[in-house]
Amino acid sequence: MSTLLQPTPDTGVPYRVRWAITDAWTLTTRETSHWLRQPFEMAVGLLFPIMFFLMFGYLIGGDISVPGGGDYREALIPGTLAMTMMFGVETTMTAMAADTQKGVTDRFRSMPMSASAVVMGRATADLFQSALSLVALVLCGLLTGWTWHDGLPSMLLALVLLLWLRFAMLWIGVWLGLVIRSTQATASVQILVYPLAFLSNVFASPESMPAWLGALAEWNPVSATAAASRELFGNPGWGGDSWAAAHPVLLAALWPLVITAVFLPLSVRRYRRLSR
Amino acid sequence: MTSPTRAVHAEGLTKRYGGKTALDSFDLTVPAGTVHGLLGPNGAGKTTAVRILATLLRFDAGRAEIAGVDLRRDAPGVRRRIGLVGQFAAVDEILSARQNLFLFGRLYHLSRPAARNRAAELLERFALTEAADRPVGRFSGGMRRRLDMACSLILAPRVLFLDEPTTGLDPRGRGEVWDCVRDLVAGGTSVLLTTQYLDEADQLADRISVLDEGKVVAEGTPGELKAKLGGDRLDVTVHDAAALDRTAAIMARVTGGEPQRHDDGRTVSVPVIDRVSALTEVVRELDAEGVTVEDLALRRPTLDEVFLHLTR
């Protein structure tokens, strides 16, 4: 029996690449099984950004006007989409910390599986889940009168930029999850994400904030992606005189690149340090 | 396949953290098909040793072979031959037991049908078939541990590492885990087990290494370790606690050993060399002094006594 259960040794690059992809996919299906096992939690996750949109669109933002007479709710959908991508950092961090704390990460590390698959599986599943929340919020927008005005290619480019931000958040999430390790401490990070998300152009114009806060808000990566989506969807935006406000699409492409360039190596280093 | 005769062989394994030596020239040989216990207080280096041998930690000096495979040269080869059960039940609590076994089976690169069959087999063997499709989050501690062990045995590994497998379990859960370990060993698996519980090492291990501050301070069978403490012990329990001092003095005078008082306040123990004459003499003296004895026993030392003696 034991001979049947012994897989062949992993020799050769094609063999390793094939198993890296298969292992990553296996771990992706682990996450999708979670959604099927916990449909309520999954639904709450999808409704969370919708709730933000409804709260700001209908309860809080009634008096907020967009320069040029645009509809606040039109500006809100791209903003909420960008915020949702940023909040994705919590999903990644919490899952990574839970696996590391409970020893699941150690089990993976003691198995003859691909090391990169641990993170790649997480990345695929998290991006997939974020794509679902984009679709949910877009549908909610369409139901409440929001739409895109500059054609399908621009609209798709906006969605790509949103997921690009989510991709960058993955690496912050993986790094934080490995640094923090305890599920209790993740709760405090979850709270700190709010001021970072709100210090942006998602819900209010940076020009309405004290000057130095406004400047921070304009350069916030979330603001870049929000402003870029507004531009690509043809939705009204806040405008502004700064370089950041004038080049949102470029900045929305650059910020995630910078974040990834910093946090991907940090995450890899942190993962390797588990064996120190 | 030819089976190596040594499941684990380590020479001079050393691990330092900054200036602190967590493991100091650790030597270990576990013959195939046996259970070896690593015993020691918290921070003694037990977990460090297991994590090194399970390829989770790099080490600074020494060498080791697991099932004949060199740890430094072929870590993936080692990983195919071991199972690791860590201090926490490292299973996915949202998934069912069956889904967990299938998931880890796939990650061990079994085909889908093979992973499914192996899951069913292990569920049966660990008496989890009935609960197979319930989420693991609702399992008892003992059931979770059993699943944890099942997940480590998917490839039928030659060597199984168990790092404090019963910490945090109730007595029933402990019993369940002990039965599993005995079954595995009967089936030919070699086990390296760390524990803080002396009775656990006594119950399960063929040989024991006692660790303290990263060093092996003693090694041998449970019987040999007990013998190291200097033979048998004589326990005297007196009726009246007031007579305890006099009793201890008599026992010290007769045997020449140092009496130890138990927590119950009425029992004194002393090591004895010549069992019967010591017993007779103590009884005679106690009788002469008019001490009423409630209980009197000659026994082997417990591992607790050995442990305290060695790590003092």
TrEMBL record, chain A:
Keywords noted in UniProt: Antibiotic resistance, Cell membrane, Membrane, Transmembrane, Transmembrane helix, Transport
Gene Ontology terms describing biological process: response to antibiotic
InterPro entries registered for this protein in UniProt: ABC2_TM (IPR013525), ABC2_TM_bact-type (IPR047817), ABC_2_transport (IPR000412), Nod_factor_ABC_transporter (IPR051784)
Membrane topology, as annotated: Multi-pass membrane protein
GO CC annotations, alphabetized: ATP-binding cassette (ABC) transporter complex
Origin superkingdom: Bacteria
Molecular function as annotated in GO: ABC-type transporter activity
Pfam family, one: ABC2_membrane
Regions crossing the membrane: 40-60, 75-98, 119-144, 156-178, 185-204, 245-266
Locations listed in the record: Cell membrane; Membrane
Record domain ABC transmembrane type-2: where: 40-274
Family classification: Belongs to the ABC-2 integral membrane protein family.
Protein name listed in UniProt: Transport permease protein
Origin species: Phytomonospora endophytica
UniProtKB/TrEMBL annotation, chain B:
Subcellular localization(s) per the UniProt record: Cell membrane
Residue runs in coiled coils: none
ABC transporter domain: residues covered: 8-238
Any one GO cellular component localisation term in the record: plasma membrane
Principal cellular location given in the protein's record: membrane
PROSITE patterns in the record: ABC_TRANSPORTER_1, ABC_TRANSPORTER_2
A GO molecular-function descriptor: ATP binding
Keyword line: Antibiotic resistance, ATP-binding, Cell membrane, Membrane, Nucleotide-binding, Translocase, Transport
SUPFAM superfamilies: P-loop containing nucleoside triphosphate hydrolases
One BP annotation, GO: doxorubicin transport
Membrane topology: Peripheral membrane protein
Name of a matching Pfam family: DrrA1-3_C
InterPro entries on file: AAA+_ATPase (IPR003593), ABC_transporter-like_ATP-bd (IPR003439), ABC_transporter-like_CS (IPR017871), ABC_transporter_ATP-binding (IPR050763), DrrA (IPR005894), DrrA1/2-like_C (IPR025302), P-loop_NTPase (IPR027417)
NCBIfam families: drrA
Family: Belongs to the ABC transporter superfamily. Drug exporter-1 (DrugE1) (TC 3.A.1.105) family.
Protein name from the UniProt record: ABC-2 type transport system ATP-binding protein
Organism: Phytomonospora endophytica
Lineage: Bacteria, Bacillati, Actinomycetota, Actinomycetes, Micromonosporales
